[in-house]
Amino acid sequence: MSAAPPAALVSAREMYVGYGRKQAVRGVSLDVAAGETIALIGPNGSGKSSLLRALAGRVPVDGGSVRIGGRDIARAGPRERARAAGLLEQRNPAPADLTVRELARYGRHPHRRWFERGGEADRDAVDWALAHTEMLADEDRVVAELSGGEAQRAWLAMVLAQRPRVLLLDEPTTYLDIAHQADVLEVVGELRRVLGMTVVLVLHDLNHVAAVADRVLALYEGVALATGTPAELFTPETIHALYGVAAEVAPGVDGGPPRIHLDHRARRDQRTQRTHPDQKERP
C-alpha cells in the first residue's frame, strides 16, 4: 500500500473518538498532503462521519491528536478551527426564507469579529465561492426552493466562503439522483484540479471514489483496515472483507480509474469478525 504523503497538511495520530461507552474511532492515523483528495469508505457504523467530525474539531478526541498546518486543533478556538477545516455534514437545514447568497455569507463568520459588517474581502470571498459552485446566477433564490443538487452546491458554497485549508465532505451525494450526484462530484473534482484544494470526503459509491480520490482509507468498526490508491485498494478481496459482497474489478482504460461491479446476490449471511492487526484498546 502507499506510504504516507510527504509534508502532510492534515496529520492525525492514534485517534480515539467515543460517545459514552461506544468507541466510534479506535487508534486511527491519517496524513493528507496539501492538494490531495482522500476518501473514507466502509460500511455504515464504521466511524467515517465521526472521524471527519474529529478532523474538524467538532467532537473531542479521547486519545491521540489532530493537526492542521501544524496546529493542534484541540488547542484552537472555534473561529480558528473553522478557518482550518470546513465541514459539510449530511443534513443541513436552512431557514425557510434564506437566499443562496445569504447562506454563503454565513461562511464568512470565522473571519469577522462579533457584530462586524462584511467588507470587500467578504464580498469577494462569497462571489468566489458562488462562482466555483456555479451558483452565482442563483444567488437570489431561496435555498428551500432549490433542487437537491442545487441546494448541495449552495451549502458547499457556504463552506468554501470560509476559505478553509481543508474541505471535509460527509456523503455529499446522499439523497441526490444520478445527474445531481455527477454535478456535485464534478464541482469537487474541479476544486482539486483547478484550485488545488485539500479534500477529505466520505462516499459510499466505490466508482465515485475511484473517480475523485487520490487515496482511500478503509474503515471497519472504527479501525483502519487498509489504505492505498483506488487501484491498489479496490480488489475483490478487500471489498469482500469490508462489505461482505463479491465484486469484479476491471482495470481503468488508458490509465483511468478502475471500475467496480458489486454482486449483491453473493453477500454472505454471516460476516467473520475482522480486526486490524495493530488494534489497541482505548488509552
TrEMBL record:
Keyword Transport among UniProt keywords: yes
Cytoplasm is among the record's keywords: no
Pfam families: ABC_tran (PF00005)
One Gene Ontology term of the molecular function aspect: ATP hydrolysis activity
Domain ABC transporter stretches: 10-246
Region of interest called Disordered, as start-end residue ranges on this chain: 254-283
Keywords, alphabetical: ATP-binding, Nucleotide-binding, Translocase, Transport
Gene3D superfamilies on file: P-loop containing nucleotide triphosphate hydrolases
Basic and acidic residues bias spans: 269-283
InterPro entries attached to this UniProt entry: AAA+_ATPase, ABC_transporter-like_ATP-bd, ABC_transporter-like_CS, P-loop_NTPase
The protein, known as: ABC transporter domain-containing protein
The species this protein was found in: Leifsonia xyli subsp. cynodontis DSM 46306
Lineage: Bacteria, Bacillati, Actinomycetota, Actinomycetes, Micrococcales
